[in-house]
Amino acid sequence: MKQLIECVPNFSEGRDQNVIRQITDAIQSVDGVSLLDVDPGASTNRTVVTFVGDLDATVEAAFRGIKKAAELIDMRKQKGAHPRMGATDVCPFIPVSNVSWEEAIECAKRLGTRVGEELKIPVYLYERAARNKSRANLAVIRAGEYEGFFEKIKQPEWKPDFGPAVFNEKSGGTVIGVRDFLIAYNVNLNTKSVRRANAVAFDVREQGRVKTQDGTPSGKPVLDPNGEPVRIPGMLKHVKGIGWFVKEYGIAQVSMNLTNIEETPLHAAFDACAESAANRGLRATGSEIVGMVPKKSLLDAGRYFLKKQRCSEGVADEELIDIAIRSMGLSELKPFVPAEKVIELKIESAQPQASLVKLDVRDFCNETLRDSPAPGGGSVAALMGALGGSLGGMVANLSAAKRGWDDKLEYFSHWAIKAQQLKDELLLLVDEDTKAFNKVMDAFALAKNSPEEKVARAKAIEEATKYAAEVPLRVMGTASKSYQLLSEMASNGNPASVSDVGVGALATRACIQGAAMNVRINLGQLKDAKFRRRLQKRVQKVSEDSDALFRKIIRVVNRKLG
After folding, report:
1. Alpha carbons 284 and 272: distance in angstroms, whole number
2. Per-block average pLDDT, block size 10, for the chain (562 residues)?
3. Sign of the CA dihedral running 490, 491, 494, 498
4. 109-145: b or e for each residue (b if 16 or more CB lie within 10 Å)?
5. Short-list 106, 133, 113, 101, CA closest to 66
6. In this structure, what DSSP letter does residue 220 have?
7. What three-state secondary structure class fits 473?
């Protein structure tokens, strides 16, 4: 899966559109990042920018944005309603897809190092990236704001994590860190009563409600030994919430901020509101997501609701997203368009690229049939592998739905999910094989007029050819994982579908044999003998294992076919 991290720098300029545009242009100048949102505020004199990309590109884009802001924003003249301490006031990283907290923290440190050393701006790390936990809270770091930091930074406990311990008069200081993804989420109720919506909000939010002596909302608070009100915790951790009336829709909502979607995911918040509402004679009729949402949140929700329905969770991402939208009523107030609301899909739609797997079957065959070398055998081999794994997944889903096999649902659902993952990995490699071939062609097209150009060209050809050999090897390794799935389905799946298992095994073996040919033809062009021998050994091992596993599965299939 592609790594994706979000960055949300806050710049202390919300009025001068020319300055804002130059900062966002600097961010967008980096290949591999997508600008998702620019939100300027005149009264706050602050602009919140949201962009995403891979780790390296996002760090580079953040640095360019901070550098440009330092050039254009003079904090000695800046005034606004929002608290601030620098031209780039705060710059958090938020993992979105396939990025660990450790990797995100490393991004914050890399950026902090560059900002401190190259721009001479003092940098403080906060939230999960904080080195000093007493300085983890942004409000604690920012206390005193720009004006107060000239003296604050002189105190030993406020020595910056990066950069000089002297406050930068023009640019101020910057806070860089890593925080959880926050989802602004509203659940719709079949009432106009703010009081009733608040009651539901108090039931679900972490802070809960104040405990009263008579148990009524208007009763006298129960105090702890320190004289502070005792609170009755709500149902959910990491949730802030309140009830309000939305005139535009004519309904009351429970408005929530989900601040840790790993521990309290979207679907948990919806179900908690639905449960609380039902207990109070109300009904949660739907919900809305304010802003954007990571794809994983909807995939997890889709699997959760399928599991509640006692259905297999091994369906395509598109179906999981659709189930999530319908189950949580995300389109009740206005259409929920995944391509606009889901971060990863928004990026895909904003950067359309030719993709073989998005062609229909006829167009794919026509494209293969053309008088051009790509797509060729490598892409077709990967597609055969995807089809082989898909057939195994189909048998798993059919078996999960078989009457009288309810006790086997979890087992078959597990394998159907595995099939979906293998299918998706191999479909990515369908396109990757063609990209690898094109890289080789691009290398051959390089100039070779001077001795230096000839050396550079030869090196580029060698590296591109190595990659062109590695891609089909990845196809082989990924496709070989389908054998375990197919073996399980041959032995334990719905007997009526055993022929499908056989076809799946044949397609998988053809994929591996075809991909092996593509590895070999590329290895023959390489000068690096050590690299060639290493890949040859791996090809031989995967091929031998494939033949053995294929024979084992086909024996079971033929025995059941009779």
Report:
1. 10
2. 87 94 96 88 87 95 97 93 91 92 96 97 96 90 93 94 94 94 91 95 93 81 86 92 90 92 95 97 94 91 96 95 98 93 83 79 93 90 97 96 93 96 96 93 92 93 96 97 97 96 98 97 93 96 97 96 90
3. positive
4. bbbbebbbeebebbbbbbbbbbeeeebbebeebbeeb
5. 113
6. P
7. helix
Q: Which two tokens stand for residue 525?
A: 């062009």
Structural domains in the chain, sorted by start: 4-178 (3.30.990.10), 183-349 (3.30.70.670), 356-561 (1.20.120.680)
Residues classed as catalytic = 82, 433
- Quote the CA–CA distance of 178 and 128 in Å, as a whole number: 5
- Please report the DSSP string for 267-312 in residue order: HHHHHHHHHHHHHTT--EEEEEEES-B-HHHHHHHHHHHHHHTT--
pLDDT value of position 352: 59
Please count the residues of the chain.
562
What's the confidence (pLDDT) of residue 216? 79
**3-class SS of residue 407:** helix
pLDDT at 181: 85
